[in-house]
Design brief:
The complex is a heterodimer of chains A (501) and B (344). With 501 residues, chain A is mainly alpha-helical. In chain A, 71% of the residues lie in helices and 0% in strands. Chain B has 344 residues and is an alpha+beta fold. Chain B contains 15 helices and five strands. Classes of the chains: A mainly alpha (501), B alpha+beta (344).
Chain lengths: 501, 344
């Protein structure tokens, strides 16, 4: 009950329902308890949901980074990044086989990182790790032109190296004369492997914090949206932030094409294909050269087994970015699947007209001509490939293939070795080398390369590896050869059925 | 008359006793389930929203009635009573409609018809009711019907797999009371292709697919005309010419296949083309000409095996064993896995 007010002031008008409810809660502790239980359940549900959204990288080594995680949850990304640096550096220094450049990066030890990189470069002038370390040092010292030079050197060797692309985007964010950050970010994100390592994760946290600290009127929502998309790789709960940033970017006219595309990606990830399609359509309306939006539309149709629309949108994507190997290769694979070799030759000729030095397009063209029975023309293209510069490990492998096709096996082998040096984490060159050595009867080398490729998960079909298992006549073969038939049949039922008597 | 009087007194009493609300909810859920299992083909775009609203209303009515029962002071709930009656009435009206639709379905006698349609637009429902509720509605244009777009409400499974611009096939049931409903909505490749061609998308791939589609329905003359026109524009498209001629040949129209491929074989020196044309012309009865083309193929690419294999087969067919042996020996040189066969 409300107490009477002094000086004859009438009490405020309240609904009898509210009055009753208040007195009820006062009288009955059970209702209060019930409310608390419901509130507790809701809070528990939220915590479980949140834990499921987060990548273990947030909890730090042995879950010791709770302070950094708390800072992240409160939005203090810069301080969280600093704390993660300390926690991970402390943990990694007690571990063995830790890359020295990683420790130097975490400790902000520019001198140590530079020394290590210079030493590495004397042994291998094309060491991507060393060039990356130098680029990171220059970026941390805000020497953006120098950092951009290093990233350009990496991208000349390895055009789709995600670490270099991310770093190039960071540099271009602060120094627009060094390129378009959106282009670099788009190229890095579409690979699906961006920012999966510790330095990239920490640097993204730092740059998001710096961009967010800008005054609201000057804030670059378009870029913030893309950087939040990168954070989403580790924290799926970022989806709402990405949407909010995208809406603000669109409202401000700050790269609306990117804004719509970002929204489309989130809709697609959250299982709303129609909204995603609408967003992608808006993206190409805002920016008709947004190849990734066309590609994403093709992906939507492809998931629904509509290969006609998929093909048409892949073609649009390739038209929007004619020299981009990502898009024309996607179109190539789609057409190759349908055995449309003639169409491939036409598209690849168009790409080569735009970019005469494009090795990937030449390799696709050579293969299409060979399959069409145009042996002579295919040989011509293979010789052209050998005169072109490879811009990625994959292109080195294509060049190696061309060398072996024209009979220059020594160059073929050397190119595969160079590909391994450029990126040690790819199983493909090892697989190719294993095949090459096996064909040449160099059994010991074939076994070695086969074991490496198998360890890296380079084989996905028993038909690919069973031939190598026969090379272990008197020795113990690797585990891939000794899998029991049940394990094999679970994965490849048809293959086992076919081979059994 | 007695019955009407009885119902007239019963219904207000049922409301008064609070019984109707619970039955309403049960019935509403049941009717919704039936209705959503067979989405109504209707131009009424608010169907999903209304379903959602009515079910929500019923649940609200139930909650309030329960609260009224357990509350220590029942009088305070008097204020919401009129709203409860309105809620009950709306739900009752909805049930009558729902039961009507159900009877419309079970009393239908006409057999269902399969139709194809173009999906014009797709929109999500404002509120999702999970797997039982409509996830969205598609605006479709039925082929062969009046050119009026119609709406079809679909569950999440169907909604997820269909996008605007696609062709779909669906089965339409004619209800006893004239209300139609649909089932088995699946994407339709042929309709999608036809739509894209109709839209005037001048793409060689689409034209080729359309020709193959016509060929599957054995429209040889139409395909031949289209193919000639196509090869005038794309004279280097050897692979498709081979594939088309091969399919036409397999369907028993070898002469037509030869007619289609001959200009191509005369103008292009291509290994695979020579192999295919050689076999095709051999099968039409001109064995010598076939052998000529296969020999030309071996001269073109002496390291490829296919022509030797076909030559061996052709010579064996016409009884020239020495030539067959020669071709096979060459094949074994290039492909040693055939060695065992050579011994035989």
């Amino acid at each position: 009950m409300l107490s009477p007010l002094p000086y004859g002031i009438p009490p405020p008008v309240t609904l009898p329902f509210v009055d009753k409810l208040v007195s009820l809660i006062r009288r009955r502790g059970v209702i209060l308890t019930l409310c608390m239980v419901i509130a507790g359940s809701l809070a528990g549900y939220y915590v479980v949901q949140r834990v499921m959204q987060l990548d273990p990288i947030f909890y730090g080594p042995d879950a010791k980074s709770l302070k950094a995680f708390a800072l992240y949850e409160f939005g203090a990304y810069s301080r969280a990044a600093e704390q993660y640096r300390i926690d991970y550096a402390e943990y990694l220094q007690s571990q063995q086989d830790v890359p020295p450049e990683l420790l130097a990066f975490l400790r902000r030890d520019s001198e140590g990182a530079s020394q290590w990189a210079q030493q590495e470069l004397t042994g291998n002038p094309n060491s991507v790790e060393a060039l990356l370390a130098l680029a990171r040092v220059a970026y941390e010292h805000k020497e953006y032109a120098t950092a951009a030079d290093y990233t350009r050197r990496i991208l000349t060797l390895y055009w789709d190296n995600t670490d270099a692309l991310l770093l190039a985007a960071f540099i271009a964010t602060w120094d627009p004369s060094q390129g378009d950050p959106f282009r670099y970010l788009d190229m890095a994100l579409r690979t699906g492997t961006a920012a999966r390592n510790l330095p990239s994760f920490i640097q993204v946290l730092e740059i998001v914090s710096q961009l967010q600290s800008q005054p609201r009127s000057e804030r670059r929502y378009g870029l913030l949206m893309v950087y939040h998309r990168i954070l989403m790789i580790h924290d799926t709960g970022m989806a709402n932030r990405v949407m909010a940033m995208a809406r603000r970017a669109i409202a401000k006219g700050d790269h609306p094409g990117e804004g719509f595309y970002g929204m489309g990606v989130i809709f697609e990830k959250t299982g709303r294909p129609h909204k995603a399609l609408e967003a992608y359509q808006n993206a190409v309306r805002a920016d008709p050269h947004h190849a990734s939006a066309y590609y994403a539309t093709a992906r939507l149709y492809s998931k629904r087994q509509d290969d006609l629309h998929q093909y048409l949108f892949l073609k649009e994507a390739a038209k929007a970015a004619p020299a981009d190997p990502f898009h024309f290769s996607a179109l190539y694979h789609r057409l190759a699947h349908k055995q449309e070799w003639y169409a491939i030759t036409r598209f690849m000729h168009a790409v080569i007209e735009t970019d005469p030095g494009n090795l990937t397009a030449h390799a696709h063209l050579a293969w299409a001509l060979e399959t069409m029975g145009e042996h002579g023309r295919s040989q011509q293209v293979l010789h052209q490939i050998l005169a072109l510069a490879a811009r990625s490990p994959k292109e080195l492998e294509s060049k190696s293939w061309a060398a072996r096709r024209v009979g220059d096996e020594g160059q073929g082998e050397a190119l595969l070795q160079r590909s391994i040096l450029l990126d040690r984490e790819r199983p493909n060159p090892h697989r190719e080398l294993a095949r090459f050595y096996k064909d040449k009867g160099r059994i010991a080398e074939a076994r070695k390369e086969f074991e490496i490729a198998a360890q890296m998960g380079g084989y996905d079909n028993p038909n690919q590896w069973l031939g190598y298992c026969a090379l272990y006549a008197n020795e113990r073969p690797p585990s891939i050869c000794t899998q029991d038939k049940a394990a094999l049949s679970r994965a490849y039922g048809t293959v086992i059925q076919a081979s059994e008597p | 008359m007695k019955l009407f009087n009885w119902i007239g007194t019963l219904i207000p009493n049922l409301f008064r006793w609070g019984i109707i609300s619970r039955w309403l909810i049960a019935l509403c859920l049941w009717v919704s389930a039936i209705q959503l299992t067979y989405p109504v083909l209707s131009p009424w775009s608010l169907m999903g929203t209304i379903t959602t609203t009515v079910v929500a209303l019923c649940l609200l009515v139930l909650l309030i009635r329960i609260a009224e029962r357990i509350s220590p002071n029942r009088h305070m709930w008097m204020i919401v009573r009129p709203f409860l009656h309105v809620g009950d009435f709306v739900a009752l009206a909805y049930i009558v409609c729902g039961v009507g639709l159900y009877l419309n379905g079970i009393l239908a006698t006409a057999p269902p018809q399969r139709h194809v349609a173009e999906v014009l637009t797709a929109a999500e429902e404002p509120i999702s009711l999970g797997p039982w509720g409509p996830a969205g509605h598609l605006q479709i244009m039925l082929q062969g019907a009046d050119a009026v777009p119609q709406y079809v409400f679909v569950d999440d499974r169907v909604f997820q797999r269909i996008l605007p611009g696609q062709g779909i096939s669906l089965v339409i049931y004619e209800g006893a009371f004239g209300v139609r409903w649909v089932d088995a909505i699946v994407p339709d490749y042929a309709k999608t292709l036809a739509m894209l061609v109709e839209k005037g998308i001048h793409d060689p791939m689409l034209r080729k697919q359309a020709m193959m589609s016509d060929l599957a329905e054995q429209r040889f003359e139409k395909v031949f005309r289209q193919a000639q026109q196509y090869f005038d524009e794309e004279p280097d498209e050897i692979a498709f010419a081979m594939s088309l001629a091969g399919t036409i040949g397999q369907l028993g129209q070898r002469a037509l296949a030869v007619q289609l491929l001959e200009p191509m074989a005369n103008n292009h020196a291509n290994y695979k083309l020579y192999c295919t044309f050689g076999v095709l012309i051999r099968d039409t009865g001109d064995v010598q000409k076939g052998i000529e083309y296969l020999n030309a193929a071996t001269r073109m690419n002496p390291q490829a095996t296919e022509a030797y294999y076909l030559l061996e087969h052709t010579y064996k067919q016409i009884g020239q064993k020495d030539e067959a042996h020669l071709a096979f020996t060459k094949l074994v040189e290039l492909e040693p896995r055939y060695h065992a066969l050579l011994q035989q």
